[in-house]
Amino acid sequence: MPTHSPDSAFQARRSVPDAGSRGGWPVRFLVAGIALTFLGCGKPEPAATPQMPPPAVVAVAAKSQAIEDEARFVGRVVAVNRVELRARVEGFLKERRFTEGDPVAVGDVLFLIEPEQYEAVVEQRQADVTKAQADAQNAEAQLKRGQELLTQKNIAQAKVDELQAAASVAKASIAQAKAALTAAQLDLSYTRITAPVAGRIGLAQYTIGNLVSPSSGVLATIVSRDPMYVQFPLTQRELLQARRDVKERGMDSKNVVVKVRLPDKTLYEHPGRLDFVDVTTDAGTDSVILRAALPNPDGLLVDGQYVGLVLESGEPKSAILIPQSAMQIDQQGVYVLIVDGESKAQVRRVETGPVKGANIAVTKGLEEGELVIAEGIQKVRPGQVVKAAPAQAPNEGAAP
């Protein structure tokens, strides 16, 4: 069994590197580095918070411009004269003497109903008048003879009274026959349907050969062309306010200019004037009908069409205009955000006036030249610094 001597054990111990020997220095440095790392993580330093740049907005300078006090409504064109032609007697249509859509003059014959049967009735009534006149002449002669005999006491008074009554009946018969003749002549005249007003005639609802009567309805319609009316509703509140405004300015309501905007968005070249305010109020809408008269020499306005209306009153006055996109509303009312001298957004309470296209007039609360935030309002809080840029022109900044 082998044995180890003390010398061999001593040699084995010497072969293990000592902690203080040169071979143990890397371990010491590694341990020291780990310790320093843990010491540094015990109290970390706070990281710097990056500052957000101020929000970018588009600001527009409030500018003063001369505008006219106006109001906008929707109205309906109404012809001054509109006549529906109807048959007043029964008969077959014999002629139609017009072309649909053409202008007609007062007195033009438009329809002719067969007149022969009514001509015969007129001749009969004329004969009745002649007979009644003859009967009255005979009754007068009998009465005169009876009165002569009465003076001679050759006839009784009762007989003379009878002759007097017969003469009176004969005279009444003449009046009755003449009245029947007049009625027959009227019926004959109704066979000729003429134009009571000048204008343009529409579609004919019946053609030649059809039987027409008073129950047949409208045969055709005539509408006048020049001038034309435009009617539009106004609420009682708006009407009262308009009257107060007119009174304060010392104006006459008849001087209010009415302009028409056609369906293609163009303004009608002939303005008109208010000429009528209805005397009753619609119970359902609490509105009153107003009417304006406008010239229509070219026939652009057509009876029954709907048009836009612009009412202008007074001389143009100066007002500050800002984009409508700048307007904000809360529980306290209308306000805008402006950019002050320190580039901060501030709230301004304003009062507004009429709308002019994409802009709106501000009557109170703004000064000319102040920068009003028109875009980017949702990113801004009052008192916040903003980066304001002017509004670009419509073609500015467009992609090539």
From TrEMBL:
Range of residues in the leader sequence: none
Gene3D superfamilies per the UniProt record, alphabetical: 2.40.30.170, 2.40.420.20, 2.40.50.100, Helix hairpin bin (1.10.287.470)
Domain of life, per lineage: Bacteria
Gene Ontology MF terms in the entry: transmembrane transporter activity
Coiled-coil residues: 122-180
Any matching Pfam family: BSH_RND
Family: Belongs to the membrane fusion protein (MFP) (TC 8.A.1) family.
InterPro entries to which the protein is assigned, alphabetical: MdtA-like_b-barrel, MdtA-like_BSH, MdtA-like_C, MdtA-like_HH, RND_pump_MFP
Boundaries of every Multidrug resistance protein MdtA-like beta-barrel domain copy: 227-312
Location in or out of the cell: Cell inner membrane
Multidrug resistance protein MdtA-like barrel-sandwich hybrid domain boundaries: 81-214
Name of the protein this chain belongs to: RND family efflux transporter, MFP subunit
Any one of the GO BP annotations: response to antibiotic
Domain Multidrug resistance protein MdtA-like alpha-helical hairpin: 123-191
Key words of the record: Coiled coil
Domain Multidrug resistance protein MdtA-like C-terminal permuted SH3 intervals: 319-379
Record's GO cellular component terms: plasma membrane
NCBIfam families per record: RND_mfp
Membrane topology per record: Lipid-anchor
